[in-house]
Write a structure and sequence with these properties.
Elements: H1 21-28, E1 32-36, E2 39-42, H2 44-63, E3 66-68, E4 74-76, H3 77-82, E5 95-98, E6 104-107, H4 112-119, E7 131-140, E8 155-165, H5 168-188, E9 195-201, E10 208-215, E11 221-226, E12 231-234, H6 240-246, E13 254-268, E14 278-280, E15 286-288, E16 290-296, H7 298-309, E17 326-330, H8 335-350, E18 355-358, H9 364-374, E19 378-382, H10 384-388, E20 392-396, E21 403-405, H11 407-415
Parallel strand pairs: 3-7, 9-12, 17-18, 17-19
Antiparallel strand pairs: 1-2, 4-6, 5-6, 7-8, 8-16, 9-10, 10-13, 11-12, 11-13, 13-16, 14-15, 19-20, 20-21
Helix pairs in contact: 1-7, 2-5, 2-7
Bound molecules: adenosine-5'-triphosphate and magnesium ion.
Amino acid sequence: MRVTQLFTKTSKTAPADEVAKNARLLIQAGYIHKEMAGVYTFLPLGLRVLENICTIIREEMDAIGGQELKLTTLQDAEIWKATGRWDDEAVDVWFKTRLKNDTELGLGPTHEEPLVRAVKPFVNSYKDLPFLAYQIQTKFRNETRAKSGVMRGREFLMKDMYSFARTQAEHDEIYEKVKQAYYRVYERLGIGEQTFLTFASGGMFSQYSHEFQTVSEAGEDTIYLDREKKIAVNEEVNNDDVLAELGLERSKLEAVKAAEVGNIFTLKDKFSGPLELTFTDEAGEQHNVLMGCYGIGPSRLIGVITELMADDKGLVWHDNIAPFKVYLARLGMDDQVVAAADKLYDELTASGVDVLYDDRDARPGEKFADADLLGIPHRVVVSAKTVEQDSFEYKKRTDADSSMLSAESLKSLLTRPA
Ligand code: ATP
Ligand code: MG
């Protein structure tokens, strides 16, 4: 894409009304627009990152047999009453509304109830199980605090997956498979090293649930981390019994701030019981289906990654999720320079490389500042000097120095898979 065609522009200054670094930078770079506190629009660049994150999540969920669907935002109060979760005392983040005839509706804050109802017609016998269903969908939560930019939205994107199993052993196997898929997601997002499996309370249904926590000063949680063992416990389960059971020593735990980027739960028959999702086994006996739920927050992830990776010049994106892989800065409007830059742009684009081509008639300093602020991982400069030397100037966003490369080595570098 050409910069002259992109309707968003970078701004010289960060917005005054934002405190969170992620929102300040993402707004300044034109990735998002603030509608109101905790509610953000994803502009073209931001949407590209969000979609790239979702693609990675989708690929990993599909690889373990997840089947994608899309539930509705509008929620029927009746089904939530059946599980006791319609009450504002039980779920304190509901946005509720009404039909013209006064029937109560809600905007989905999570989707266990409607999914159970939607799969029920298809689940009768042991032969219909197990399966995994997921969606990537907008959730609505009337969060009390919305000061962390896109890390805590009142309207935000969630990947929520649900497992349906016959036996505890079958559930445990699926749960472990999802856990491994989650590790792969964070690895591919470029935050594998900073993201730790964290033991949390399992509620009434299992001993533990697990959070995936990314260590960051901007996080709202505190976790107690054993860096060697690469596991942590959260506040709720930080007690001597749990530590002993997990083989952790208090003296080796480090208290660190972290952001929850995923959460996996064993639900047993918490929902299948009241909503009567049952199956008949080989012997003709009826049982409740055993469920699990598995969340990841793609929009929170953009915030977390921004907080972690950005430097004093702006955003920094990993190749796997960057809105564009290459920032092609053309310096000058000489025919030869324009021809060389156009040619490289066409060739890279034809090889499937996403290029943001700065074809503006602007000063070099302005172009370099934008390349840095936007966080595009690879910068290529075409100028009178590079044309004269029949080469290109190349620099990685995270490197200080550039180097001169031939067209051939540049192209092989940029078309190499990440
Ligand atoms: P938190 O503890 O941060 O309030 P949660 O435990 O309520 O989150 P879940 O209901 O398990 O979160 O949601 C699954 C995932 O969705 C979370 O791990 C997080 O990544 C993301 N998420 C939850 N709430 C928000 C929010 N308000 N804004 C953005 N992402 C969110
Ligand atoms: Mg949580």
